[in-house]
Structures are given as structure tokens and as C-alpha cells.
């Protein structure tokens, strides 16, 4: 974006990128935070382990972003939240050449809808895809962090900023609050441009002493 700002002809592109960064990013980050709070309340043992990690960070010698970004348990949890409940459930792409997906032929000019939910919850990758998996992600072929922001040249420009937001939000709240379920009812989805929960998240935030 900085390079585009130096070239007048690309100023419109820069403005579009900034609008996407500030507007679209706010909604998707908020949706992810909501699902993350729900998962913390749903898995209290995971919440306690993450709280211990967050408090170790805040009481450590270095409380900067470089140190926070290396907090593996928290980054694994965020990746799983993005995998289970991707804020953007589908993405559209425009075919520029012939291709074949399985038995389906793709022609130039066709609009292709890619389902992140279908990919991230595919049983070929995980035996129980709907369960929170906090194991080491290095061996996983599909993770929330690798898919939720798209991949390749069209990857979301706000990826690192969004991860910074999520890591900061969760580390602060885990340090001073507890998330509790107010209902055990399974999620009912409200589909917009994001993957939301109909009626909001059944979560209560309790301040810790």
C-alpha cells in the first residue's frame, strides 16, 4: 500500500485497500472474537490453560507484540477458532482459464464460490472436524490461519493486523475475566457476509479478582 501511495495512478487502488482494511476487517474480527469467546466458555479446561499462558506473558519481562506473537497456545486456539467458525464462510473467484475440479469442468469467465467451511471441516483432514483441536498445528494440512484469510496473491492484506487484534484482545481478557456459557443450545447460524450466530453468543463475562 505504501508503494501504491507513491504512484498517483494507483491512488484509487490504495483507497480501496484502506476501505477494505478498516471497514470489512472490523466486522470479521468482531465475528471471530465472538466465536472465540464462545469456544472459551464451551471448553473451560482450555480457557484455564490459556489464562495461565496469558498471565505468564503479562507478568513476564517482555510484554511486547514480538513476545505475544510467540505465545503458541494462544495462536493455536485462534487458528482453531478461525477453522471452526471462519468469519468469511465463502469467497468468490473469477476463472481466467479452463480447469477441472474433480468431475466438474470450469470455463473462463465462470464465477467460482469456494467454501472455507467445506474445506476446513472436511473429514478427510480430521476424524472429528467439529471438535476443538489444540494439538500442534505444524502437521495439519488445513488450519484456520492458513485458510481464513485466503491464500496466494489474493490473501487478505489485513491478516497480520487481525491476528494482532485477536491475540491482544484474548490475552487481556483472559488475564482479568472468565467466560461462562449461559446456554448449552447448539449454534443456529445467521448468514450474512460473515458467519454469525443467530441471537448472539450465549456467553457471560465474569470479572476475576
What does the model show?
The chain is of the alpha+beta class. The chain has one domain: Orthogonal Bundle (Cytochrome p450). The chain is 45% helix and 15% strand. It contains eight helices and eight strands; from the N terminus they run H-H-H-H-H-E-E-E-E-H-H-H-E-E-E-E. The chain has helices at residues 2-5, 11-42, 44-58, 65-68, 72-84, 116-120, 144-147, 159-176; strands at 90-94, 99-101, 104-106, 111-115, 177-181, 189-191, 195-197, 203-207. Strands 1-4 form a two-stranded antiparallel ribbon. The longest helix has 32 residues, at 11-42. It is globular, with a radius of gyration of 19 Å. It starts with a helix and ends with a strand.
List the helices and strands and how they pair.
Layout: H1 2-5, H2 11-42, H3 44-58, H4 65-68, H5 72-84, E1 90-94, E2 99-101, E3 104-106, E4 111-115, H6 116-120, H7 144-147, H8 159-176, E5 177-181, E6 189-191, E7 195-197, E8 203-207
Antiparallel strand pairs: 1-4, 2-3, 5-8, 6-7
List keywords for this structure.
209 residues, 8 helices, 45% helix, two-stranded antiparallel sheet, Cytochrome p450, two-stranded antiparallel ribbon
- Helical fraction: 40-55%
| Helix-strand sequence | HHHHHEEEEHHHEEEE
Q: How are strands sequenced across the largest beta sheet?
A: 1-4
Average pLDDT confidence is 83
User: Structural class of the helix and strand makeup?
Assistant: alpha+beta
